[in-house]
Amino acid sequence: MLFYLGLGMQLTGFSSVGLCLFAGLSKGDYGRLELAELIGGSLIFYVGTFLKNKGGK
Q1: Full-prediction pTM beyond 0.85?
Q2: Are 34 and 24 in contact (CB under 8 A)?
Q3: Which of 12, 28, 30, 37 is packed most tightly, with the most Cβ within 10 A?
Q4: How far is CA 38 from the centre of its chain?
């Protein structure tokens, strides 16, 4: 169960960081919203990685 929860969190974090990247490239600047997406997405991704590794063993 933790494996799939972690995998879902990884996918959510990865997509959040990707949206941040494309939003910043289209506007030409990174604002506070993009910074929050980057930090939040990275945090979700790494917590998901931890849970995925914990549940896979």
Answers
A1: no
A2: yes
A3: 37
A4: 7
